[in-house]
Design goal:
The chain is 37% helix and 22% strand. The protein has nine helices and eleven strands. Strands 3, 4, 5, 6, 9, 10 and 11 form a seven-stranded mixed sheet that branches. Strands 1-2 form a two-stranded antiparallel sheet. This is LysR family transcriptional regulator. Keywords: Activator, DNA-binding, Transcription, Transcription regulation.
Length: 320
């Protein structure tokens, strides 16, 4: 067996290879890594020469890992995760939650929660360098599992092993109707009242879609004629008179320009639980739990804090 000195193998080169695998594009991988495309390509070639394996099949329009490449890149991901865990384990002793914190937020929460979250974090965690990402729940959890995110703000419960989650607050749902809809002025609405052909939904993959169907007692196979790609488009479709839907409480802020087009009605006992999720193996678990306490103590107006733990001393309420 040929001896290969470890001095020829760098974590940075592994990061380059993982970036190419993630993005399937050398140019975008170089941009993500903050290097030139030529420099990244050269380092990948050097790594291939060192390992004696072609990692990627390349063409002008196609980049994909070879079978050997896929196996080795998977091992490379584990090496990077172990290296980051070593760094974070050292940080726990001297300064929890200092430096870079990669936060994922589900798409139906981020635009409405993050604007109030950022000033809070700047005040109580000024030492943090934040990197925010928003997407669908499954994508966020996959990124969390692969150590591409540190924590995720999501609707609970989440699926999958190896995660630890704690509830933060309960966010009510309200029913939003076109102003002229027959249900718009009905008093004492209940969830069964919304079970009808005019119910609008988000596209498949949004947890809000599944929650709406479950609350209305409808099959997950229900498909309206039109689906919304985002919560904002769903709101616009309601305003256009196409139907009605459930809207999270935080998404109703600053909607004054829609007065006369959309009527909002409360629905008793209709809500979702927003929580914080991290890898159960992350050595910063205790620091993340304290971070969750800070968020919970500053629950947004209109929502209800949820705590399964004894009360802890935390920052005073700021996010009203």
């Amino acid at each position: 067996m040929t001896y290969i000195p470890l001095s020829g193998l760098s974590l940075r080169d592994i990061e380059y290879v993982v970036a190419v695998d993630d993005l399937r594009n050398f140019s975008r991988a170089a941009e993500r890594c903050g290097v030139s495309q030529g420099g990244l390509s050269e380092q990948v070639r050097k790594l291939e020469a060192l390992l004696g394996v072609v990692l990627f099949e390349r063409s002008r329009r196609h980049v994909a890992p070879t079978p050997d490449g896929a196996r080795l890149i998977g091992m490379g991901r584990e090496v990077l995760a172990a290296a980051r865990a070593m760094i974070e384990a050292a940080r726990v002793r001297t300064g929890p939650l200092e430096g870079l914190l990669r936060i994922g937020v589900i798409a139906t929460l981020g635009p409405y929660y993050v604007p109030n979250l950022l000033p809070l974090l700047r005040r109580y965690y000024p030492q943090l360098q934040l990197r925010l990402t928003d997407s669908l729940t499954d994508i966020m959890l996959r990124m969390l599992r692969h150590d591409e995110l540190d924590i995720v703000l999501a609707a609970l419960p989440v699926s999958g092993e190896g995660f630890h989650s704690v509830p933060l607050f309960s966010e009510p749902f309200l029913a939003a109707f076109p102003a002229e809809h027959a249900l718009a002025e009905r008093k004492n609405l209940t969830m069964p009242d919304l079970k009808g052909p005019d119910l609008l939904l988000l596209e498949d993959g949004h947890c809000l879609r599944d929650q709406a169907l479950a609350l209305c007692g409808m099959s997950s196979s229900h498909e309206p004629e039109r689906l919304a790609a985002s919560l904002e488009m769903l709101w616009h479709m309601i305003g256009a008179g196409e139907g009605y839907s459930l809207i999270p409480r935080l998404a109703l802020r600053n909607r004054g320009e829609w007065e006369g087009l959309i009527t909002v009605q409360p629905i008793p006992a209709a809500s979702r639980t927003i929580g914080l999720v991290w890898r159960a193996s992350d050595p910063r678990g205790a620091a993340f739990a304290d971070f969750a306490t800070c968020l919970r103590n500053n629950t947004p107006e209109g929502c209800t804090p949820l705590s399964p733990f004894p009360a802890k001393t935390g920052p005073e309420q700021d996010m009203q």
